[in-house]
Amino acid sequence: MSQHGEQQSTSDRGSQAGTGAVTAPAATKIGTDVIQRTWVEPQAGSTFDAHGWRMALYENRTLASAITAAVTGMLVGYPFDSLKTRMQTYHYPSLLACARKSIAEEGVRGLYRGLLPPLLTASAAKSLSFSVFEETKHWLRRHDPFATQQAPFGLANFQRKTVGSVALSAGVSGSISGAVIAVLCCPLELIKVQMQLARLLNRDPTSSDTATASSKPVGTLVSTPAGTLQGGGAAIATRQLRNAPAAPPWAASNLSVLREIVRRRGPSGMYYGIGLHILRDSSGTAIYFASYETVKETLRRLTGSDTTGPLTHMLAGGTCGVVSWLLIFPVDLIKSTMQSQVLKPKGSKTFASSLQCLRDIHSRLGLAGLYRGISVSLIRAFPIHGLNFVVYEWARAHICRLAGRPE
Q: What is the membrane topology here (predicted)?
């Protein structure tokens, strides 16, 4: 993302506001330091004042850019997220089998079940995430105790003049941003998981994992929560798909899911799995932003450029998406598995705790079991997160050009 002139400087730019031209001084780079030249406000009554909305947009450029990126990414990537959730909590032989079976039972529209809450809130969450990230990053730089002296143990400071400093600053800021977002979005993601799994949960409401499948004879058709068809032939499989259960009554809408959670669990049920949610988002967002800015700054230095373009943003964004998922996927898998049990009677839960869930998955499936469904995340990670940052950086730069202001 743009570093407000901290990592890069741009040539002076001018923008046209009506018939009046306003020159926007950028930043001057001297060595590793960046000195921001003073902006001279247009005189009252100038043509530029007629476009006050541009300045309002400029002042909120982080929010506007993040919203644009969030909506674009959500519309493109949500079907992959839905398949990922299904593969994490139910057994499918492969991603292709999961996609085929899901579409056969529910249609393409079924892959967008539960889209409304994240679509409405993703823009708010992402804009808040980016805003908290940016503000924390600048706060750390202003209050850096090692700004003028060497940090202990050879650690980097928060001045963002080296690649290590950029990574540290982004990692700490991202961790704080992720924790804030997790607290706000936990109820919404809990609803999303229930909507995505509604039909599968209705197939066998007393079981949420595939333990029951392991006790079934392999030679018969197994109708398990995992959705795995074994034996029985294509004709039986076809009948099974046609007779797929409808979504349960409580999954009629996002609001009805919320009501059902509160009815069965009380108001605190909306935060079922909050600990895992905070762990996933704080660590994942730290890795996400740190890897993005590190790759972006490294590529900028390698090319000897003061600016970065769409290709750099795509490479850095795609890389950070893949790296963050590889490192935090097991936490996300356990979180999804535990949250899928929120509407089950306490006595019928498969797992009483996240630790029990971890041990069970590892004992039955080994380390590979902790990455069940990761193929979906990795397939979508590079293009979706690359697109996310391309759109974000493009929107931010476009707003700055529109306002005639430096990035």
A: Multi-pass membrane protein
148 phi and psi, to 5 degrees?
Answer: -115, 5
Is residue 7 within 8 Å of residue 160, measured between CB atoms?
yes
- Where is 24: in which H helix or E strand? strand 20-24
Q: Dig out the tokens for 165 from the structure.
A: 């400093």
Instruction: Decide yes or no: CATH 3.40.50.300 for domain 13-403.
Output: no
Listed by start position, the domains of the chain span 13-403
Residue 89 tokens, joined: 């909590």
On whether the CB atoms of residues 191 and 113 are closer than 8 A, the answer is no
Helix (H, G, I), strand (E, B) or coil at 34: strand
Q: Locate 353 and state its tokens.
A: 């705790």
* Structural contact between residues 14 and 23, judged by C-beta atoms closer than 8 angstroms: yes
| Identity of residue 155 | L
- Provide the 8-state DSSP code for 138: H
Task: Give tens-digit pLDDT for 274-291.
Answer: 999 999 999 999 999 999
In the structure, how many helices (H) and strands (E) does the chain have? Answer: 12, 4
Phi, psi at 27, each rounded to 5°: -110, 150
Which of 131-140, 232-241, 246-255: highest mean pLDDT?
A: 131-140
Q: How far is CA 324 from CA 164, 274, 283, in A?
A: 18, 20, 9
The CA distance from 334 to 13, in Å, is 50
Q: Which position has the token pair 């409304």?
A: 116
User: What is the pTM for the complete model shown?
Assistant: 0.68
H-assigned helices in 254-342: 254-265, 274-303, 310-339
C-alpha distance from residue 193 to each of 8, 100, 157, 326, 363 (Å)? 41, 20, 40, 21, 25
Tell which residue, 276, 245, 292, 306, has the closest CA to residue 34: 306
Is there a contact between 166 and 297 (Cβ–Cβ < 8 Å)? yes
Distance (Å, whole) CA 239 – CA 219: 17
In this structure, what token pair is assigned to residue 207?
């079981």
Q: Could you give the 3-state DSSP secondary structure of residue 23?
A: strand
Candidates 323, 301, 317; CA nearest to 390 is 317
Could you read off the pLDDT of 354-374 as tens digits, one per residue? 999 999 999 998 988 898 878
